Amino acid sequence: MTTALLIVDMLHDFVGGTLANPVSKQTIDPIARLSEAARSAGWPVVYSNDAHQQGDLEFEVFGEHALAGSDGAAVIPELAPTAGDVVVPKRFYSSFTQTDLDATCRLHGIDHLVVVGQHTDCCCRHTTYDAFARGIGVTVVSDATCVFEPVDPASVQDRQQAALDYLSFYYHARVADTDTVLAQG
Fold first, then answer.
1. Hey, which of 13, 63, 77, 92 would disulfide with 18, CB 3.0 to 4.6 Å?
2. What predicted TM-score, i.e. pTM, was given to this entire model?
3. 64: buried, middle or exposed (CB in 10 Å: 19+, 13-18, 0-12)?
């Protein structure tokens, strides 16, 4: 089994910019720890980043954000890609929809993704479904993912748990925290 770390949308616009998600700040350290360990273990580290074009459909829901080539579409410095990492630009919620992620998985023999980043209830959810539909196993890291806090006044913790439960039940995703993933290598 070849495992890859998939970092979803840890971009300026989603951490502190146009669509700032305050709860995302607590995922930065766990993601940094996981990416360092992944690189040390020889896992591919793949970034799936919104890189929108003018008029993209998501703008109807969230307004203009993460325009390709803009500062808002750049990965935050604490988690910036390094040499050898793969960057997959995306224009839809799923990291697979009209991107090179499927080809990247096939090229590297990836049959398991460790998913971290934003948003457990949207982009991570759609990505997990598309991995499931392709027969790619998924581990979602509970403390390295987060829901989109500004969307709903309900408790972030309750919404995060509901999103994780959904991924586990419907897509057979394994849910684990950073320490567990690191311990299992």
1. 13
2. 0.97
3. middle
CA distances 5 to 35, 44, 59, 73, 143, Å, are 7, 6, 28, 20, 14
H or E element in which residue 7 lies: strand 2-8
β-sheet with 45-50: strand ranges across: 86-90, 45-50, 2-8, 110-118, 137-146, 174-176
Instruction: Provide the phi-psi class of 108: left if phi over 0, else alpha when psi is between -120 and 50, else beta.
Output: alpha
Query: Do you know the residue count of the chain?
Result: 185
Cα 79 to Cα 29, 82, 135: the distances in Å are 9, 9, 28
Which residue carries 């890189």 as its tokens? Answer: 51
Mean pLDDT by 10 residues, the chain (185 residues): 95 96 98 98 97 92 93 98 97 97 97 98 98 98 95 91 98 98 91
Question: Could you give the CA distance from residue 59 to residue 61 in angstroms, rounded to a whole number?
Answer: 5
User: What is the DSSP pairing of strand 110-118 with strand 2-8?
Assistant: parallel
